[in-house]
Write a structure and sequence with these properties.
By secondary structure, the chain is of the alpha+beta class. Helix content is 24%, strand content 25%.
Length: 315
């Protein structure tokens, strides 16, 4: 009997916490007023085709909830950049969470304050048999970017777009594989400059120490530095990206899944765009998404994007 009572109390406490979070989220949405903003952004191909994969969103407030209408988003594509609805939902919750005070718990109460309108089977509502391997690391970034851009267009004081990619890189040789993601520039915001050389939007990975990497794998890091000047200008500057230069010591392959190589992270409120990223093999440009054979001594350079600036520069 006591166990049942304990569970009942815990359930009531959880329900109360969820309801508290929902009320805080709804109250913040009410402060936004009768907003309306639209934005369209895109992934730069799906790895099979170079055609843009559009993400469109119309942001408004309706019945006390933040309404995100993704009509106009591309249908699912052949490549693996599609994402299931759960990833789209998580990206929307992330954006709303950034508008809330720090003491608001992160839980499903935030999701209750969001209404999603998503065309069935589109690139952000992937259904079997759509490929989704890169949806979480790349499409999630673009969804977040597009929502922020729409909110900014509606006059909400949100940060400019950040690097918008995880810069996924994988090396593989005989008996070994190494994978990491790379940071870049965060968008500037109304309160200050964007930080440099950080992951933006999502990541559960930390920086890979050079010493650890070189000890474990036949790879040497010839350069690892902040990409100075790659952040967009403005009243507040966007954060800078990074430069990471890998020299392989034996024959292997490299696989890249990267973004923002031709579509720059946009500034907000009059701020300038950040620099696009760039991938190089022995000094020559290579595609944003590719798999290449490498020989001993080849050098792969990843230059990650900078974040957009915020506000028109002071005169």
């Amino acid at each position: 009997m006591r166990a049942r009572e304990t569970h009942t109390r815990l359930d009531a406490a959880c329900d109360a916490l969820l309801e508290y979070t929902r009320r805080r989220a709804v109250a913040r949405i009410a402060e936004l007023g009768d907003i309306r903003g639209q934005a369209v952004d895109a992934l730069e191909g799906d790895g099979v085709s170079d055609a843009d994969v559009a993400v469109a969103v119309d942001v408004s407030v309706r019945d006390g909830r933040l309404r995100l209408d993704f009509s106009g988003t591309s249908p699912a594509v052949r490549g693996n950049v599609n994402c299931p609805r759960s990833v789209t939902r998580a990206a929307a919750v992330f954006v709303l969470r950034t508008l809330l005070d720090d003491d608001v718990p992160t839980n499903d109460g935030i999701a209750d304050a969001v209404e999603l309108v998503i065309p069935p089977g589109c690139a952000i509502d992937a259904r079997w048999p759509s490929a989704v391997a890169a949806g979480n690391v790349e499409m999630s970034q673009r969804i977040t970017d597009t929502i922020f851009l729409a909110l900014g267009n509606a006059g909400v004081p949100v940060p400019a777009q950040g690097q918008g990619t995880m810069n996924n890189i994988t090396f593989g040789g005989a008996g070994w594989t190494f994978y990491e993601t790379l940071g870049g520039g965060q968008g500037a915001g109304p309160r200050g400059d964007g930080p440099s050389a950080v992951h933006v939007g999502m990541s559960n990975t930390r920086n890979t120490p050079i010493e650890s990497l070189e000890h474990a794998y036949p790879i040497r890091i010839d350069e690892y530095a902040i990409r100075r000047g790659s952040g967009g200008t403005g009243l507040h500057r966007g954060g800078d990206g990074i430069v990471r230069r890998y020299r392989v010591l034996e024959r292997c392959t490299v696989t890249l899944v990267t973004e923002r190589r031709r579509r720059a992270p946009q500034g907000t409120a009059g701020g300038a765009a950040g620099e696009t990223g760039m991938n190089l093999l022995n000094g020559r440009p290579i595609p944003a998404k590719c798999r290449l054979e490498l020989q001993a001594g080849d050098v792969v350079t990843i230059m990650t994007p900078g974040g957009g600036g915020w506000g028109a520069p002071a005169k």
